[in-house]
Design a protein that fits this description.
The structure holds 2 protein chains of 2 kinds. Chain A is mostly beta strands. Helix content of chain A is about 0%, strand content about 55%. In chain A, a hairpin with a 2-residue loop joins strand 7 and strand 8. The chains are: A mainly beta, B mainly beta. Chains A and B meet through strand 5, strand 6 and strand 11 of A and strand 5, strand 9 and strand 10 of B.
Chain lengths: ~110, ~110
C-alpha cells in the first residue's frame, strides 16, 4: 500500500522568508500524481500545486514550487516570500495512476510570524 | 468554480442514533469521496463513488455506509453512531476523465457524538 510521510508536524517562518515543507512517499507504481493541499483555519481544503510523475520539470504556481525527486520518492513544497495568509495546515497527497483514491500525509502546521 | 456543499458545519448527535451527512456538488463530477479528519492522523478515506449507485470502500469503512442515488449528491450514513465517530468529516468531488484532476473539498462537518 502507498504511504505518504510528512516528517514535520509543525513549522514556522518569518513573513517574507522562504520555507520548505517535506514529503516522502512509498510506491511501486511508475505512473502517479502528487498534490499539496492547504487547509486554512476556515477549514476548506484547497489545492496548492500538483505534479505528474512522468514530468521531470518541477511544478510552480506563483510563490509555490515543488522539488520532485522521483528516485528518492520525495516531493517537497517551497513557499517563497511567505505571507500571513499562508498560515495553514499543509497536506501532501499521492494518487496512483490506476485509481481515483488519494492517500494523504498527516499534515504540517505552518505558522507565519509577522 | 466548483462548489461542494456539506449540509451542516456542526452537528451534535447521541450514541446509537442514525446520522446522515449530506454532500452536494454542482459541477457534474463523476467521483465523490467521504473522508474523516482527526488530529495527527490526516485525512482517511471512508468511501468513494465513481458513478451513480456505485461505491467502493476506502481505508476505514467500518461503521459507515453511503448512498449515491443522484450524480450530484453523496450521503454518508452512520448506522448507529458511537463516540469514536466524533470527528471532522470532509466531502470531495472530482472529474473522472482526467487522472491529474484534483479533488475539490467542502467546508467540512464537525460531528460530535455524545
Amino acid at each position: 500500500a502507498q504511504t505518504v510521510t510528512q516528517s514535520q508536524p509543525e513549522m514556522s517562518v518569518q513573513e517574507a522568508e522562504t520555507v520548505t515543507l517535506s514529503c516522502t512517499y512509498d510506491t511501486s507504481e511508475s505512473d502517479y500524481y502528487l498534490f499539496w493541499y492547504k487547509q486554512p483555519p476556515s477549514r476548506q481544503m484547497i489545492l496548492v500545486i500538483r505534479q505528474e510523475a512522468y514530468k521531470q520539470q518541477n511544478a510552480t504556481e506563483n510563490r509555490f514550487s515543488v522539488n520532485f525527486q522521483k528516485a528518492a520518492k520525495s516531493f517537497s513544497l517551497k513557499i517563497s516570500d511567505s505571507q500571513l495568509g499562508d498560515a495553514a495546515m499543509y497536506f501532501c497527497a499521492y494518487r496512483g495512476g490506476s485509481n481515483y483514491k488519494l492517500t494523504f500525509g498527516k499534515g504540517t502546521l505552518l505558522t507565519v510570524n509577522p | 468554480d466548483v462548489k461542494v456543499t456539506q449540509s451542516s458545519r456542526y452537528l451534535v448527535k447521541r450514541t446509537g442514533e442514525k446520522v446522515f451527512l449530506e454532500c452536494v456538488q454542482d459541477m457534474d463530477h463523476e467521483n465523490m469521496f467521504w473522508y474523516r479528519q482527526d488530529p495527527g492522523l490526516g485525512l482517511r478515506l471512508i468511501y468513494f463513488s465513481y458513478d451513480v449507485k456505485m461505491k467502493e470502500k476506502g481505508d476505514i469503512p467500518e461503521g459507515y455506509s453511503v448512498s449515491r442515488e443522484k450524480k450530484e449528491r453523496f450521503s454518508l450514513i452512520l448506522e448507529s453512531a458511537s463516540t469514536n465517530q466524533t470527528s471532522m468529516y470532509l466531502c470531495a468531488s472530482s472529474r473522472g476523465d482526467r487522472r491529474a484532476e484534483p479533488q475539490h473539498f467542502g467546508d467540512g462537518t464537525r460531528l460530535s457524538i455524545l
